TrEMBL record:
Belongs to the methylamine corrinoid protein family. Residues 1-88 form the B12-binding N-terminal domain. GO terms for cellular component: cytosol. InterPro entries: Cbl-bd_cap, Cobalamin-bd, Cobalamin-bd_sf, Met_Synthase/Corrinoid, Meth_synthase_dom. Gene3D superfamilies: Cobalamin-binding domain, Methionine synthase domain. Keywords: Cobalt, Metal-binding. This is Putative dimethylamine corrinoid protein. Pfam families: B12-binding, B12-binding_2. GO terms for biological process: homocysteine metabolic process; tetrahydrofolate metabolic process.
Length: 210
């Protein structure tokens, strides 16, 4: 089995220590961090996601797999992020109200920070008010919202409405993303940018701030 297959299997089995050990060893050998993420960790989580959909595994198994994946990302974080440079802009990031999924959001944070952006991470279950008020108070150029549930996507529209209400849409751009979110949905709610993955989200954020 390749190291990527091992990583995928250990994520599925929730074996935190094995995941951390493999990643640390591979980084030591100079293996590409993005490849360990894309071809190992994310593959394992995709398998679990598919099994969850088909009722072959349940929430506890998903949760332990998610912990193993997050542990792997934590070890990778240093390698994914470039050296901290002077701040190129400020982003207020979070997962929307009612939604507790944070692995993708955490990846977005790592990638944005690797581009020199200053990220204020509000965590999960973030209300529209909190997104907009924090962005105003902190002088952020971007609000970045993540949602993984179809039932929580409408909170993104609340963020757009709240920003309109406060009259800040000319200076604060709203980015949306997460598995169920699409370009079409972004257009429908009047947000500014959609991106399918963490890497393109960080590219767009950097363009906005430059
Ligand atoms: Co949940 N869950 N979950 N879950 N979970 C999904 C999302 C689901 C699709 C599974 C399924 O049925 N196949 C389904 C949603 C169905 C729907 O809405 N239509 C679902 C469900 C139903 C639920 C519960 C309701 C289950 C229950 O309790 N019965 C519950 C809800 C809890 C809540 O939030 N209120 C729940 C709970 C959980 C766990 C706690 C067990 C765990 C989360 C742990 C955690 O996040 N700390 C969990 C997990 C792990 C998943 C799956 C299996 C994996 C999600 C993940 O982390 N993927 C997921 C199935 C799936 O997505 N295939 C599922 C890896 C991550 C890197 O990808 O987050 O998509 P992702 O991020 C990507 C892109 O989307 C993008 O960048 C990343 C890649 O580079 N991206 C952005 C993300 N945010 C972005 C923001 C941007 C731009 C890009 O700009 C701002």
């Amino acid at each position: 089995m390749s190291v990527y297959e091992d990583l995928s299997t250990f994520v599925q089995q929730g074996r935190v220590n094995n995941v951390k050990e493999i990643i640390a060893a591979e980084l030591g050998k100079g293996t590409n961090a993005q490849a360990l993420l894309q071809d190992g960790l994310l593959v394992g989580m995709a398998v679990i996601g598919e099994k969850f959909k088909n009722n072959q595994v349940y929430v506890p198994e998903v949760l332990i797999a998610a912990r193993a994946m997050q542990a792997g990302i934590d070890v990778l974080a240093g390698a994914l992020a470039a050296e901290k440079v002077e701040s190129k802009g400020k982003v207020v990031l979070g997962t929307v109200k009612g939604d507790l999924h944070d692995i993708g959001k955490n990846l977005v944070k790592i990638m944005m920070e690797s581009k020199g952006l200053d990220v204020i991470d509000l965590g999960v279950d973030v209300s529209a008010d909190r997104f907009v008020n924090t962005a105003i108070e902190e002088g952020a150029q971007i609000i970045a919202c993540s949602a993984l549930l179809t039932t929580t996507m409408p909170v993104m529209k609340e963020v757009v409405d709240k920003a309109n209400e406060k009259g800040v849409r000319d200076r604060i751009k709203i980015m949306v993303g997460g598995a169920p979110v699409t370009e079409e949905f972004k257009n429908k709610i009047g947000a500014d940018y959609y991106s399918a993955d963490a890497s393109s989200a960080s590219d767009i954020a950097l363009q906005i701030c430059q």
